[in-house]
């Protein structure tokens, strides 16, 4: 009994289809600002489109906007160069800030004493997702009931990692949600 093997072209086509659902990311490490100040800006742009995010960041008066702007620009460049996505179709699906190490310096004071100066750093991660792949998904969604539509769209647009096989079957209409 022989095992049917797919050609490499078929495998590559399936992988490229699955990679559309995964995000493209950019990571900025050891950015010299507190994580709290960076989160204030990140909370404003999470879930927005790429172009809208760039406009918001250019107009916000915070110092944290510039490194975040550079990271989003870099993630979009990764998406267009590495995966061939259109920048107009990108959306920020995940953006988070983690606390980094704290740089410590001693400042000399009077009478031979010294004060500790703490300079916090943070790590910022931006994940972009291509929304053009969801158009085919939305075309086939009319076959479902209203309750099933909500569940399918929530699964497609969720930030959590979802099983690519299930999504592929939902797109083709071979599987229904119960």
TrEMBL record:
Which PROSITE patterns does this one have?
RIBOSOMAL_L22 (PS00464)
Database matches in CDD domains: Ribosomal_L22 (cd00336)
One biological process term from GO is: translation
Q: Would I find Metal-binding among this entry's keywords?
A: no
Q: Which GO terms describe its cellular component?
A: large ribosomal subunit; plastid
Name of one Pfam family that matches: Ribosomal_L22
Q: Which InterPro entries match?
A: Ribosomal_uL22, Ribosomal_uL22_bac/chlpt-type, Ribosomal_uL22_bac/org-type, Ribosomal_uL22_CS, Ribosomal_uL22_sf
Compartments reported by the entry? Plastid
MF GO annotations:
rRNA binding; structural constituent of ribosome
- Tagged with keyword Plastid: yes
Q: Which UniProt keywords apply?
A: Plastid, Ribonucleoprotein, Ribosomal protein, RNA-binding, rRNA-binding
Query: What is the similarity comment for this entry?
Result: Belongs to the universal ribosomal protein uL22 family.
Protein name per UniProt: Large ribosomal subunit protein uL22c
Q: Which gene encodes it?
A: rpl22
């Amino acid at each position: 009994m022989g095992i049917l093997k797919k050609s490499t072209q078929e495998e590559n086509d399936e992988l490229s289809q699955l990679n559309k659902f995964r995000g493209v990311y950019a990571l900025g490490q050891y950015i010299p600002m507190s994580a709290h100040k960076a989160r204030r800006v990140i909370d404003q742009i999470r879930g927005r489109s790429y172009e809208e995010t760039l406009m918001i960041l250019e107009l916000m008066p915070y110092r944290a906007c510039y490194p975040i702007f550079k990271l989003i620009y870099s993630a979009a460049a990764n998406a267009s160069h590495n995966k061939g996505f259109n920048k107009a179709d990108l959306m920020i699906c995940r953006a988070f800030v983690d606390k980094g190490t704290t740089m410590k310096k001693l400042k000399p004071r009077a009478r031979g004493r010294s004060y500790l100066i703490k300079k916090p750093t943070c790590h910022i991660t931006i994940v972009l997702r291509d929304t053009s792949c969801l158009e085919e998904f939305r075309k086939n969604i009319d076959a479902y009931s209203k309750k099933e539509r909500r569940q399918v769209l929530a699964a497609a647009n969720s930030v959590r990692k979802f099983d690519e096989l299930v999504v592929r079957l939902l797109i083709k209409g071979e599987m229904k949600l119960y």
